[in-house]
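Exercise 7. Given the encoded structure of a 328-residue chain, write a plausible sequence.
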């Protein structure tokens, strides 16, 4: 699907990108409590010094227990826009949802995870996005579509060197001197109600995007929700429509067009819809429907969804990325 138009992103861009500051090992959970007694509400082994137990439920330390505090309001665009600790604790007995981990709901001081050994008030950052997948990791270095851990993945490049590795909680991509490369993992056909949670270590050297990506048919549209990029912010200044707020940030909206270029329906002419965050980030939540609704307000209507995928793309660049993700 490579091309040489800088507005294309998923199918290639002239202008290089790089950027996306890697986070400081967000996968390392807290190591638990210095004083085992301070984890008294944790069960055994949560009450021990390591705060261990079930690392799948929020890392070896769980949440961000070092702060000793808890956010009481659940993020907007979810089942409850506002909920107290007691309300959501009664509804969700296990601390195993990405939104809990990302927003420190797994903190002992908020009454969570009292018996699953997910750690107490020790230091450390949030644990990884949990996964119950037991499929072995798979390394893919040639163009391929497949399934892994309940998601559909696709790896594609036109030239150069690169590989994608599927992991239990997401995927990683490495590339060197490629022309155009995409590594993506998500759901097909997907839904406007999908919410993507992700945590990435993103190290591009050149043109690259970290985004939610996909296509629609009837009409044929290639779409991007870009949270980070490299040394060129897509898609340039062309086709600006406006801006809106979603998931704690501002996104600029663009519409561009590709003429006689590769697509999921072969060579075709189609529009691209873009939401590009004004400030880069490499972890968070993307509420897909917010973007679809914002585009519709500018006459940018979606067709039938083909996919909703967390994606790393590179164009005439090198780099690497590791992405933990879940889609609900």
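Solution.
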């Amino acid at each position: 699907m490579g091309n040489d138009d800088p507005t294309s992103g998923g199918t290639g861009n002239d202008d290089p990108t790089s950027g996306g500051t890697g986070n400081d090992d967000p996968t390392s959970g807290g190591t638990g409590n210095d004083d085992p007694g301070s984890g008294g509400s944790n069960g055994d082994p949560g009450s021990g010094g390591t705060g261990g137990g079930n690392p799948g439920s929020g890392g070896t330390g769980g949440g961000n227990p070092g702060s000793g505090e808890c956010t009481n309001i659940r993020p907007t665009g979810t089942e409850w826009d506002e909920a107290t600790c007691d309300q959501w604790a009664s509804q969700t007995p296990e601390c195993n949802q990405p939104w809990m981990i990302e927003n420190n709901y797994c903190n002992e001081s908020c009454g969570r995870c009292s018996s699953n050994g997910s750690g107490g008030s020790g230091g450390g950052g949030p644990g990884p996005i949990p996964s119950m997948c037991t499929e072995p990791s798979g390394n893919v270095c040639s163009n391929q579509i497949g399934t892994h851990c309940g998601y559909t993945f696709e790896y594609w490049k036109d030239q150069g060197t690169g590989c994608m590795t599927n992991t239990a909680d997401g995927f990683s991509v490495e590339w060197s001197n490629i022309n155009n490369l995409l590594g993506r993992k998500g759901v097909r056909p997907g839904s406007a109600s999908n919410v993507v949670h992700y945590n990435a270590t993103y190290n591009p050297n050149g043109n690259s995007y970290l985004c939610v990506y996909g296509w629609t048919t009837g009409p044929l549209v290639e779409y991007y929700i870009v949270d980070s990029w490299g040394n060129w912010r897509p898609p340039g200044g062309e086709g600006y429509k406006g801006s809106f707020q979603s998931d704690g940030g501002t996104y600029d909206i663009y519409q561009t067009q590709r003429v006689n270029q590769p697509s999921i329906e072969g060579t075709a002419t189609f529009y691209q819809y873009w939401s590009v965050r004004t400030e880069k980030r490499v972890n968070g939540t993307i509420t897909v429907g917010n973007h679809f609704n914002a585009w519709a307000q500018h006459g940018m209507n979606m067709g039938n969804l083909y996919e909703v995928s967390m994606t790393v793309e590179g164009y005439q660049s090198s780099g690497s990325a590791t992405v933990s993700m879940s889609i609900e």
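Remark. The mean pLDDT is 74. Students should compare their own answers with the one above.
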